[in-house]
TrEMBL record:
Key words of the record: Transferase
Protein known as: Protein N-acetyltransferase, RimJ/RimL family
Gene3D superfamilies in the record: 3.40.630.30
Cross-referenced Pfam families: Acetyltransf_3
Residue span(s) of domain N-acetyltransferase: 23-191
Gene Ontology molecular functions: acyltransferase activity, transferring groups other than amino-acyl groups
PROSITE patterns: GNAT
Amino acid sequence: MSDDTSAPRVLDRIDWPVHTARLTLRPARPDDADAVWEYRRLEPVARWLTDLPDDAAGFRARFAEPGRLATTVVVEHDAAVIGDLMVRVEDAWAQTEVAAAARGVQAELGWVFDPASQGHGYATEAVRELLRLCFTELGLRRVTALCFADNEPSWRLMERVGMRREAHNVADSLHRSGQWLDGLGYALLAEEWKSA
């Protein structure tokens, strides 16, 4: 999905908010930035994030960018933000003659949760609902997720929700520590989700 502010907001096709047994999922708003910053700045969380501004003001500015807001869903439990989800709709690779049929048919997913809320199954509940939304409401055919191989909680979550490991790339990801770490890639097709 483009970060261009004129691009259609794919998530606008969903009737928000969405409720699960214990959680509420809704599109992120600029005023969610401080709550999200509180857990994203924590070292056990921040070590795995792709980018993290150095301070709350920098984070607020990045969080409020239209492209970021267009792909971010917050997760609430008892009206408190406990996590955030990313849904970046993308085109699938295709040969030129059929490229139009591959536009906007898949998404990369991501998630970050407050360590204080871990151990209760909230992440599993939220990501399962996100998968349902991707396949039923958005009509996607495939979703993917990536993580560092050392980020065991993330890849274990991918497996819990039925995603399959498609790639284990050796020393392909440069971590901000300066080390080259292994990366993992997971995916799930709509038909696999339906049959599960």
